């Protein structure tokens, strides 16, 4: 089974957490694209979606799923999204697709966070995948210097502007043994909009696509 087929297994398995008549939080990325396809198959049973990126919004609209503004929704029953890395405590690195800020906002208003991944994303210690940090453009160099002090090797993701008009620094050479503490330290740097550590708001359910089908941990 290919990696994409495993992603599809995880994406379609997440449908079981979608309640009839609900507004669904939808993330961003290749695994989520499979979930969006799955959501299209039950679009008449749901009210619509709150999306974390323009790319996901376009895909949802193309399937005829109504998009709701985050400001008009008090809470979401469920948010389905992928991860670039996830540890046994269900803490994650996200932001490979540069949608980390909106993803974190949608996660914050959701009662349940269902993380859909293929088996390659599971790690014991976060940090092998470069940690994305969304930064206000004028603070880029300052934030980079501060990230070096925290033991990282920040690299400017050239040519990328987030949906919020900001830039991304990808921080290499990290071993994040205390993700909640590290999340706080990076968030405290002036000019940081969001760090792609989802430690304070981790996943409630992890669905892993495997050659044997979807494995669910909750």
UniProtKB/TrEMBL annotation:
Entry keyword annotation includes Isomerase: yes
EC code(s) of this entry: 5.3.1.6
Single GO molecular function: isomerase activity
Pathway: Carbohydrate degradation; pentose phosphate pathway; D-ribose 5-phosphate from D-ribulose 5-phosphate (non-oxidative stage): step 1/1
Ligand binding (substrate): 28-31, 81-84, 94-97, 121
Annotated catalysed reactions: aldehydo-D-ribose 5-phosphate = D-ribulose 5-phosphate
Record flagged with keyword Zinc: no
Active site positions, chain numbering: 103
Gene3D superfamilies, sorted: 3.30.70.260, 3.40.50.1360
Pfam families the record matches: Rib_5-P_isom_A (PF06026)
Function: Catalyzes the reversible conversion of ribose-5-phosphate to ribulose 5-phosphate.
Subunit text: Homodimer.
Family recorded in the similarity comment: Belongs to the ribose 5-phosphate isomerase family.
Protein name as annotated: Ribose-5-phosphate isomerase A
Annotated organism of origin: Vibrio zhanjiangensis
